[in-house]
Amino acid sequence: MRSYELMYILDPNLDEGASGALMGKIEDLMNKQGVEVEKTEPWGKRRLAYSIKGHRDGNYILSYLKAEPTAISEMERRLRVTDGILRFLTVRMDEQQAKLERRAVRTGEKGQARRQRKAARTASPPEVKAASPAEASADSDDAKAEAGAGSDETKKES
């Protein structure tokens, strides 16, 4: 058996008793198909992103299920023709969980490589020898002498 998540939206015009009766009818339908309902969470009335069948609001219901794929396809077929259900979506949780685990491994590897690079940079910073003022003036005098010698040669050639 596989784990699934079923989200369905009920007609907002149904009163609380009718919504409860429809939820019970849907759970009975699932049990007849061999679907095991682990937990059902009514989320209440919420605004829809866009109008569905002329409705701007809907009663959201989330159910966690365990079932075989053939039972899920039959359940979805029956949900399509049930009055009072505006929309539904069934998601297989096994695949979703596997994707999340793969993503965690990838980000963990990237983070570990990043930490290693950072540790390598901070462990051995390049050493720059600071010149003393006397060495700096001696180097600048040598550079002036070389520059002056080269300019005399260019003057003689012209």
Oligomer: single chain
Q: Which geometry do the CA atoms define?
A: elongated
First CA to last CA: what distance? Answer: 96 Å
Rg on CA atoms, Å: 37 Å
CATH topology description of the domain at 2-94: Alpha-Beta Plaits
- Stretches where pLDDT is under 50 for at least 5 consecutive residues are none
Main beta sheet strand tally, sense and closure: 4 strands, antiparallel
- Give the tally of β-strands: 4
Percentage of residues in strands = 25-35%
The CATH superfamily of the domain at 2-94 is identified as: Ribosomal protein S6/Translation elongation factor EF1B
Helices and strands, in N-to-C order? EHEEHEHH
Report the CATH C-level class of the domain at 2-94: Alpha Beta
Class by alpha and beta content: alpha+beta
> What topology, given as strand order, has the largest sheet?
2-3-1-4
Helix content: 40-55%
Kindly report the average pLDDT value: 80
Please tell me the CATH architecture of the domain at 2-94 by its name. 2-Layer Sandwich
Number of separate helices? 4
Describe what this molecule looks like in 3D.
The protein has helices at 16-32, 69-81, 93-123, 133-157, and strands at residues 2-10, 36-52, 55-67, 85-92. The protein has a domain at 2-94: Alpha-Beta Plaits. The protein is an alpha+beta fold. The chain has a four-stranded antiparallel β-sheet. The mean pLDDT is 80.
Structural key phrases:
158 residues, Alpha-Beta Plaits, alpha+beta, 4 strands, elongated, 4 helices, 30% strand
